[in-house]
Amino acid sequence: xxxxxxxxxxxxxxxxxxxxxxxxxxxxxxxxxxxxxxxxxxxxxxxxxxxxxxxxxxxxxxxxxxxxxxxxxxxxxxxxxxxxxxxxxxxxxxxxxxxxxxxxxxxxxxxxxxxxxxxxxxxxxxxxxxxxxxxxxxxxxxxxxxxxxxxxxxxxxxxxxxxxxxxxxxxxxxxxxxxxxxxxxxxxxxxxxxxxxxxxxxxxxxxxxxxxxxxxxxxxxxxxxxxxxxxxxxxxxxxxxxxxxxx
Length: 247
Hints:
Blueprint: E1 2-5, E2 12-15, H1 38-42, H2 69-97, H3 112-137, H4 141-171, H5 180-211, H6 221-246
Antiparallel strand pairs: 1-2
């Protein structure tokens, strides 16, 4: 509204001032205008197809990344497995506290150096797995597959080395039924080896999925879940190594 003065009366009156807004339809737009739309600014910059926020015309709306139900299920499973290993560690500490000499003098000593090298192998496998996850998030599918294959092969090597050491320990007289020392050792380390074996099978399945083109930058929940479980078995091993082999 604007205020004007009538020439014949000299009185001020209000006279509406009409301004028409020109609406222009642009390519790639199903609607919208070139002027400022207060409703669009309040609702996030338009209808989601015409741009806004620096996006070019016709760009699809990008959904924020979320956590799938499968990933949440894997997190819950890993939490339950962590409780299992925590229980084993506490049991080991209680049993060891009841013996003045640990390990018993008549029992063979554990292969600390070989197991330390094997620990580095498993940690290297975990690093390769993390690299595979980062590569797939960047869209580098082939690189992700190569790194995942490396992680899987290192995991198999870890199991082979551990199996060879077990055979030697059994030849030296350390058995699961011989005494509490052997029982605790094989239950704790054997439980971890079982988890590594299951995780390796999962990684082999994911590798096969790559060969079928099942994983992309946008869809790779299988790789994420496999990587989460593999990361768990990798990170729990140094804790077991310190408690069982070094302390």
